[in-house]
Amino acid sequence: MCRKTGPEDVVFKVLYCGVDHSDLHQIRNEAQYTTYPLVPGHEVVGKVIEVGSDVKKFVVRDIVGVVCMVGSCGECMRCKTNKEQYCKNMVFTYNTIYKDGSFTQGGFSSAMIVHQNYVVNIPEKTSPRAGCTVTMCRSDGLQSVKTVHRDAGPSVEERAILYLEAQDRVTKGASLKWL
Length: 179
Prior knowledge:
alpha+beta, Quinone Oxidoreductase, Chain A, domain 1, five-stranded antiparallel β-sheet, two-stranded antiparallel ribbon, GroES-like_sf, zinc ion binding, EC 1.1.1.195, zinc, ADH-like_N
């Protein structure tokens, strides 16, 4: 782990981590901004082993997930309007610097420390392994619903809602079927 646990942090042992193409881009330094040594992985599921003194949403032994970000400034207009993913000081799961100057380390590590606002509970009926896929899909789907323009037509909204409904069913125990 790369930093000390703060009062609003959740510490969890990594159980599973997905791999997608953005991890490969970072590993290969294709965008020319990778800092090595690099610990990638941003579709992460783990078991809580410690919580900070101000954490109320999670307890030790919870199964949790983290997607592509673990922090933001918390003070800009974007952060104050629930649009942290657009914060100029967003902290990605890996290859970014925390406020304390330490580098983030992703889900290929053995454990992670993440601010509670960027951690989600994985329902008991969902296998932790399936949770990796669901964490990233749910964040993408939720963001599309939050940002879709009403004048874009019903098909955009309907597809986003159907996407979320499918992901919700998986989190409630439906099996994944790849087409």
